[in-house]
Amino acid sequence: MTGMGPGMRLRLFLRSLFVQSLWSFENMQGLGFGMCLEPWLGKVWKDAPAEGRRALARHCEHFNTNPYMTGLVLGMAASLEEAAAAAAGEARPGLEGRQRTLKAAASSALAALGDSFFWGAWRPFCAIFAVAAGVLGVILGGRTVTVILAAAGFYVLAYAAPVLALRWQGLSLGYRWGERFAQELSRYPFQRLIKATRMTGLCLALGCAGIAIFSIMSASSLPRAGVVAAAVAGGWAARAYGLTARRLYAAVGAVGVLAAMAGLRW
Amino acid sequence: MTTEAGVLAAGAAAVAAAELDSTLAAQLMVSRPIVLGPILGFAMGSPLVGAFVGLVVELLSHDKIPVGGLIPANAPISAGAGLLLALGPGAVALPVAVPAGLLLGRLHGPLVDAPLRRRRGRMAREVGETLARGEDVSLGLLAGRELLLQFLANLAMLLAVIVVVKPLGRLTWRVVEDTALGTGLWSAVLISPWAGLGMLAHSMRLAR
Predict the structure, then answer these.
(1) What is the domain range of residue A198?
(2) Hey, which residues does A28 pair with through a beta bridge?
(3) End position of a domain, from candidates A139, A164, A188
(4) Where on the phi/psi map is residue A188: left (φ > 0), alpha (ψ -120 to 50), or beta?
């Protein structure tokens, strides 16, 4: 980075953690994005404050992407804004229009990528991983409370480390890539990463369920293990048919009521 | 009793603050039920209950993802409210505390999130107008104010849960405890985590 020193990068990074703090239905992250870029705009437009305010208004327009990908877009916008500030007055409107188009394209592409990786794969994967680590810790004879707290800490570390790294590194990558953003991004094997995460998560989830069913079967009773197996299969089927978790919870409760009326108990 | 009530109020404040992590700030997932549950449970003297409630809510909160304007049931509020009901003075039995927590997490959207988001929409228009007039705006200050507002709204909701929902929950359980409905509620709280695991596994399958 030539124009963005470590101090400025840190300011943008810290502000990027709050990009959703001004989230609204109409504007989505627009106001938050403007808030993140505020110090940078103050720097590049310091000799033309009126232009700086115009730039801030432009960046406060509707914007939405996956929050963890904001660093990349912020870096790119910072680079394009620096170019606009350095350009001659008559070239600026063209550059501003180009900036709008590139920002919109990058935000959509990164939203799709970030949502399918972080919300669709990484977050559930970390949850399953923490559960698996907890189960393993208890099997290995760890003190239950210690294992539970360690698994919770493990979840936060596993989730937060790549997220923070992406937010921090994204700033410099986006700034360096500038207009070459799309070409550079296409070099990364995101889809393979998503598939591998999901596949590992699926194996871990089914493995956890299998171990639990086996343990219940050997420790208590076959019918109870059968109920657990049916519940896991039922959860899978419910999700496949689009049933929400709350409805599933109510359905399990209703089955429990019917079972109790029939004289069966869990 | 006063100390226990203080712990409950402190727990409500902790949940209200942690909830900010779910959408408005950082999103490091320290607010996820699987993390919040054990920590809150530990702080309130029952780490195992905390872990159990956290696990149940965690496994049941992956059915919708927060994309665009969608407001899914708020998992930190579900787990936090469930635990505030299940622990401390006047504790409510888990078969009532957990579904009540899930319901309150769902209500958080229309009661707290949506009105505050609409308010920020009006604020965005005002900011645009102010900048167009050539006046300065401190967006950092506005962001700080919104975080504080969301925290206070969360806290108000959670304190209402302690004051209003807790006695109702205890009464409900006293009425249904020995009935088929009581057994059904126990079944739901014990079996639903397994169903949640199945749901979570399904969400990890590779879409064709």
Answers:
(1) 189-266
(2) A24, A63
(3) A188
(4) beta
Measured CA to CA, the distance from residue A14 to residue B30 in angstroms comes to 17
pTM score of the predicted model:
0.93
Q: Do A231 and B61 touch (CB under 8 A)?
A: no
A253 vs B188, B204, B206: nearest CB: B188
Return the SS3 of A24: strand
**For the residues A86-100, what does the mean pLDDT come to?**
85
User: Do residue B140 and residue A246 have CB atoms under 8 angstroms apart?
Assistant: no
Residues A159 and A205 in one domain: no
**Predicted pLDDT at B207:** 62
For residue B59, which residues of chain A lie inside 8 Å, CB to CB? 127
Q: Are residues A145 and A77 in the same domain?
A: yes
**Mean per-residue pLDDT, A90-95:** 84
A–B interface: beta-carbon pairs under 8 A: 280
For residue A193, list chain B residues with Cβ-Cβ distance below 8 A. Answer: none
Amino acid at B17: A
Residue B208 counted as domain residue: no
pLDDT tens digits along A144-169: 899 999 999 999 999 999 999 999 99
84-123 of A, contacting B, C-beta below 8 A = 111, 115, 119-121, 123
**Contact call for residues A246 and B105 (beta carbons, < 8 A):** no
The region of weakest confidence among A78-82, A212-216, A235-239, B54-58 is A212-216
**Element spanning B175, H or E:** helix B166-176
Would you place residue A265 in the very low, low, confident or very high pLDDT band (cuts 50, 70, 90)? Answer: low
Number of domains in chain A: 2
The ipTM of this complex is 0.92
In which residue are the tokens 């490091």 written? B28
> Which of A20, A202, A227 minimises the CB distance to B201?
A202
- How far does Cα A264 stand from its chain's mean position? 43
